[in-house]
Amino acid sequence: MIDVENLRIRFGDREVVKGVSFSVKKGDSFGIVGESGSGKSTILRAMAGLNESWEGRIAFGGEPAALKRPPGFFRRVQMVFQDPYGSLHPRQTIDRILSELPLVHGMDNIDKRIVQALSDVALPQAARFRFPHQLSGGQRQRVAIARALIADPQVLLLDEPTSALDVSVQAEILNLLSDLREARNLTYILVSHNLAVIAHLCGQVGVMLNGEMVEQLSAQDLRAGKTSHAHTTELRMLSVGLEEPA
Amino acid sequence: MLVDIQNLRIAFENRSSWFGAGRGVSLSLGAEKPGIVGERGPGKGLTGRALRKLLPANAAITADRLSFDGIDLLAASEKQMRQIRGKRAGFILQDPKYSLNPVMNIGRQVAEAWRAHKGGSKRQALEAAIHLLDQVKIRNPREVAASYPHEVSGGMGQRVMIAMMLAPDPELLIADEPTSALDATVQAEILRLIEELVSERNMGLILISHDLPLVSHFCDRVAVMYSGRVMEELKASELLNARHPYTKGLLNCMPSLTHPRDRLPVLNRDASWLTA
């Protein structure tokens, strides 16, 4: 479904992504972990078409993505951002936020689509005419997910979708994401620095270090500690060490 | 006892009514390192702010006892408070991105903090600032001192915040979510640094965080707060035997690397927790 080959991204003279390749099958999830500055979000932004200065090959469903994405691309690929406090327009109602994409793409039945999208992410219909500041962080992230789903996409690019949320809300959002994937056969690419979140949602994990993907392994191997690169081992040790209460 | 809080209540006035935020929080800091844990909005940050009397004008604090090193904070004048804030009780905030001045280089910011408390010439202050940056284990303090906040990483920024806080040699350190904006690897480094500094300088530490396991690693006692109340207070080592459903729920709903689960249990909040 998704093929990324030898992706290189540079800002000025600094190369921040140095030849990354991976592929994801339809209905699978691929997780990218790494520290901040390792280039993981940069990859995602290039895939979403938010950054046009990349080299290499990015293909969705066998079709190479053009540097300038055609409008139809965004009906198939959508992105959910990290911070639901920053990614929703503060002066627009949820109704307005959700109707933007169907309007741009000239879709019909916008009213029905919004009703459906809200119920898909388990938000009450009453939320439709609220403003983002009237919702909690978890509800806002649901709105952001609803906004991505309203295009009926095949691929969701998730950039740290739960790191701005409380742990109990994080659990709800993770459950929602895995339910949606099952119901709609979605393909996810999830970027996070939290190994436990990645391993929970993804079958395959890529580890980034200084712009290179130093290791790709399955979530089972990661859980079992069958890591081959020192950086993966270190990340895993830290995660396991802090996970267990003392 | 360095800090003693008994039955602290914080209330906010809005146009028509009073809204209670902190409801009967008790906490004491002597030889032990206490931690306050809870999710967004239970008033853990407010408790930290109340200790420095830095609450908005429409907030009212009442407590049976609120004291710092024997000084009654409720009766303390603004002048006395200024002796405590920053000077005797240091504060580390969540996100260095927002707490550092973006248009002032790091050396000058740290020097400013040092001069505010110790006086001295600008040159002395700058030397002291470089020394402080060195103490928080920044490898090239001179270079960092000359750079601006946007040029350094989040972990480095947090080290700079800690260096500023160390300037007046405080006796107490209140760390309010000191690492939640940072990566796992950097998180561990910063916490280790805080722990080392605390034991080297014999400071008291109150750690405020939403991350239960993390707090349990660095504190002796943990107070779990929910909606302005302390639900449960227990020894960090006994966290696994927590009795309150909220504490258990918080521990349970985290995805785990070593114990995979298909679905995560969701926390069911019970209204009776607030009346019990």
TrEMBL record, chain A:
GO terms for cellular component: plasma membrane. CDD domains: ABC_NikE_OppD_transporters (cd03257). Keywords: ATP-binding, Cell inner membrane, Cell membrane, Membrane, Nucleotide-binding, Translocase, Transport. Its main location: membrane. It is a peripheral membrane protein. Part of the ABC transporter complex GsiABCD involved in glutathione import. Responsible for energy coupling to the transport system. Belongs to the ABC transporter superfamily. Glutathione importer (TC 3.A.1.5.11) family. This is Glutathione import ATP-binding protein GsiA. It comes from Ensifer adhaerens. The lineage of its organism: Bacteria, Pseudomonadati, Pseudomonadota, Alphaproteobacteria, Hyphomicrobiales.
TrEMBL record, chain B:
It is found in: Cell inner membrane. Belongs to the ABC transporter superfamily. One of its GO terms (molecular function) is ATP hydrolysis activity. CDD domains: ABC_NikE_OppD_transporters (cd03257). Residues 3-252 form the ABC transporter domain. Coiled coil: none annotated. InterPro entries: AAA+_ATPase, ABC_Ni/Peptide_Import, ABC_transporter-like_ATP-bd, P-loop_NTPase. This is Peptide ABC transporter ATP-binding protein. GO terms for cellular component: plasma membrane. Keywords: ATP-binding, Cell membrane, Membrane, Nucleotide-binding, Transport. It is a peripheral membrane protein.
